[in-house]
Amino acid sequence: MAVHEQPRRSSGFHLPSSRGNRTTSAPRSAVSAGTGTSTGRAYALASLRLLTGFVFLWAFLDKTFGLGYATPSGRGWTDGGSPTKGFLGSVAAGPMKSTFHSWAGDAWADWLFMLGLLAIGLALVAGVALRIAAVAGTAMMGLMWIAEWPPARHLADGSPSMSTNPFVDYHVVYAVALIVLAAVAAGDVLGLGRLWARLPIVRDHGWLR
Fold first, then answer.
1. What's residue 2's pLDDT?
2. Residues 6+ apart with CB under 8 A from 76
3. What is the DSSP letter of 73?
4. What are φ and ψ of residue 154, in 5° steps?
5. What DSSP character marks residue 3?
6. Which of 20, 109, 162, 180 lies 20 to 30 A from 170 at CA?
């Protein structure tokens, strides 16, 4: 007589598998960490944008009203002073020394310089038109770098230039910061970048972004 074993029935009760919990919690942790890193990066870049924008705006305000810092009181633009005469007139090294001397104090140079400071500063603080600000700011920093001419060891009168680095100075750092801020659309956080990007003219012309 053949004996057939009855199949064992499962009780339907299973202990929770810790392996399954680990596999489901790991992706969640990774996503959470990635989101936190992205958010931190976005706020760090936004902070850099705001601080850089304030540098340009402060330079504009100080040169316009003579706040007593880089521009002495009573010698601001509104007082009849020239924002470019002192800086360009004192250029003492570099291949464009005579050119800068001829530009110093000219009305067109004053207006172009001051409008550049104001426009770049406002764009950075608001987080809009960062690509235009990057191009204009890089051009301005490049001209100022040439005016100071860090590669020179001595000035025209033979005195030491006191240059600390023949290639990289704060003008180069500002220019690179502007390019990075525009490249990563840093105006979307703590700024009006998203609203600006939705404007029809900005959507149709990416260079306005």
1. 44
2. 62, 63, 64, 65, 66, 67
3. T
4. -135, 150
5. -
6. 109
Give the containing element (helix H, strand E) for 198: helix 193-198
- Minimal CA–CA distance to 149: which of 124, 129, 167, 173? 167
Whether residue 85 contacts residue 104, with contact meaning beta carbons closer than 8 Å, is answered with yes
Helix (H/G/I), strand (E/B), else coil: 160: strand
Which helix (H) or strand (E) segment holds residue 124: the answer is helix 107-126
Residue ranges of the chain with per-residue pLDDT less than 50: 1-24, 26
Q: Is 168 helix (H, G, I), strand (E, B) or coil?
A: coil
**Token reading at 166:** 């023949």
Q: In the structure encoding, which two tokens stand for residue 140, read together?
A: 């301005």
* Contact between 68 and 124 (Cβ < 8 Å): no
Residue 140 CA to residue 128 CA, distance in Å, equals 19
Backbone angles phi and psi of 76, in degrees to 5:
-75, 175
> Euclidean distance between the first and final Cα of the chain, in Å?
88
